[in-house]
From TrEMBL:
PANTHER family: PERIPLASMIC PHOSPHATE BINDING COMPONENT OF PHOSPHATE ABC TRANSPORTER, PHOSPHATE-BINDING PROTEIN PSTS. The keyword Signal applies. It comes from hydrothermal vent metagenome. This is Phosphate ABC transporter, periplasmic phosphate-binding protein PstS (TC 3.A.1.7.1). Coiled coil: none annotated.
Length: 261
């Protein structure tokens, strides 16, 4: 199974994880998590696993925080997350994360926007409100309309704060459009010629948007692999820690980490 700009790594991991009581049965796996993880690999993986085993994987979104915390409580069998657990939050303390892929973050604009490239400083300055007009980036004389995810715990938002600002508490004062998830962010920019925002490449490639080069580097497989494209993060499957895992969860994760998966 291949994914553009996503590095699927076969890992040999031994783990002791569990899923507490859930509404699923032995022939069903309940999964919830961030939409980017769902689009990056879970949709195709779930179909392939059902075809191989007859076990259906029911997918729902809700974001990385939902995926992590509902896996911990046992409301779902497996969560999906595009960020690591946050230290100091008891709701996530017993989460066990299994990295299964790498995903690039990309800066996106409307497909007809003439700007093709941006550097890290310019990206910071846009989010901080220091660059406010597209003409400062070689574009038209028009205001920049920044789209951001609500809150600071989203996978994209947390990774952006870590890699671009080195500050998990960073606010984005220039935000004009604050949306609940990556889907509305991408759809908004798809319709707004003056819009800009950051999302996962696996999600962005399904939209009619332009992905900007960052520091003159495109988010290609090779550039992510060699580290020259700097915005990337791992994607995780999440289960509950420190208890015996159900066999169906173990089997699914083993499949996800295999070459076949």
């Amino acid at each position: 199974m291949r994914y553009i700009a996503i590095l699927i790594t076969s890992l040999t991991l031994s783990f002791s994880v569990s899923t507490a009581w859930s509404k699923s049965d032995d022939r069903t796996i309940l999964w919830a998590g961030c939409g980017i993880t769902k689009k990056a690999f879970m949709s195709e993986l779930a179909k392939a696993y059902e075809k191989k085993t007859g076990i259906k994987v029911n997918l729902s979104g809700g974001g990385a925080t939902k995926g992590i915390r509902k896996a911990v409580t046992g409301e779902i069998d497996i969560g999906g997350a595009c960020r690591p657990i946050i230290e100091g939050h008891p709701e996530e303390r017993r989460a066990y994360q299994v990295p299964v892929a790498w995903d690039a973050l990309v800066v996106i604009v409307h497909e007809k926007n003439p700007v093709n490239s941006i550097n890290s400083k310019e990206l910071r300055d846009i989010y901080l409100g220091r660059i406010k007009n597209w003409k400062q980036l070689g574009g038209p004389d028009a205001p920049i309309e920044l789209y951001v995810r609500r809150g600071r715990f989203s996978g994209v938002g947390r990774t952006l704060r870590e890699l671009v600002f080195t500050n998990y508490e960073q606010e984005f004062p220039a935000a004009k459009h604050i949306v609940r998830s990556s889907g509305p962010l991408e759809k908004g920019i798809q319709k707004n010629i003056y819009g800009i925002g950051t999302t996962g490449i696996s999600s962005a490639k399904r939209r009619k948007v332009k992905m900007l080069k960052l520091n003159d580097k495109s988010p290609t497989y090779d550039n992510i692999k060699n580290g020259s494209y700097v915005l990337y993060r791992p994607l995780y499957l999440v289960t509950k820690q420190r208890s015996k895992s159900s066999q169906k969860v173990k089997d699914f994760i083993t499949y996800a980490l295999s070459r076949e998966g």
